[in-house]
Amino acid sequence: MDTKRYKIVDQPIAIDELIDKVTRPEAGAITTFIGTVREWTKGKRTIYLQYEAYIPMAIKMMEQIGHEITEKWPNTEIAITHRIGRLEITDIAVVIAVSSPHREAAYHANQYAIERIKQIVPIWKKEHWENGETWIGDQLEQIPYHDPWPTNEGGI
Q1: Which of 75, 106, 127, 141 is most buried, taking the most CB atoms under 10 A from its CB?
Q2: Cα separation of 57 and 63, whole Å?
Q3: In what order do the strands lie in the sheet with 6-9?
Q4: How is the chain classified by DSSP, letter by letter?
Q5: Is residue 87 pLDDT above 50, yes or no?
Q6: pLDDT band at 131, cuts 50/70/90?
Q7: What is the DSSP string of 109-140?
Q8: What percentage of residues in the chain have a pLDDT greater than 70?
Q9: What domains can you pick out in the chain, each with its CATH number?
Q10: For 5-9, 54-58, 82-86, 129-133, which range has the lowest pLDDT when averaged over its residues?
Q11: Contact 99, 27 (CB under 8 A)
Q12: How confident is the model at residue 141 (pLDDT cuts 50, 70, 90)?
């Protein structure tokens, strides 16, 4: 079994593998967040998304999020996998699994994780609509990016 808790992949995400990474006898709760590609965004019909990442920094930032979570919610465990490449409608883009002794910490830590991913992890998406396409930029959609797009360094 792959024990890496923070990954960027270019293939479908195996949800059970993330759950296995955080399963432990002292955990009475495991929460998962599964982010999927939706069809409609702000009134525009999405055909597919293209995700890109600066992989070494993305992994480093996911690890930072993990450290923040264990400081805020002691005795929690977390695993995060984000997919890059072309994703179709309903494809899974991100999975977060959190375990803790009690459900409240697991819920809060999971929500914290997805918000921090959007804030600090260098992953970008290009939305392809029926009538055009555009790089959205950061995941909070506050910083636009323009072509030409930088090349991906670090590989998968």
Answers
A1: 106
A2: 10
A3: 6-9, 77-83, 92-100, 29-36
A4: ----SEEEESS---HHHHHHHH--TT-SEEEEEEEE--SEETTEEEEEEEEEE-HHHHHHHHHHHHHHHHHHSTT-EEEEEEE-EEEETT-EEEEEEEEESSHHHHHHHHHHHHHHHHHHS-EEEEEEETTEEEEEESTTS-S---SSPPPP-S--
A5: yes
A6: confident
A7: HHHHHHHHHHHHS-EEEEEEETTEEEEEESTT
A8: 85
A9: 9-136 (3.90.1170.40)
A10: 129-133
A11: yes
A12: low
| Residue range 42-55, pLDDT digits in tens | 888 999 999 999 99
Measured N-to-C along each axis, helices 103-120 and 55-72 cross at an angle, to the nearest 10 degrees, of 150
Place of tokens 């400081």: 71
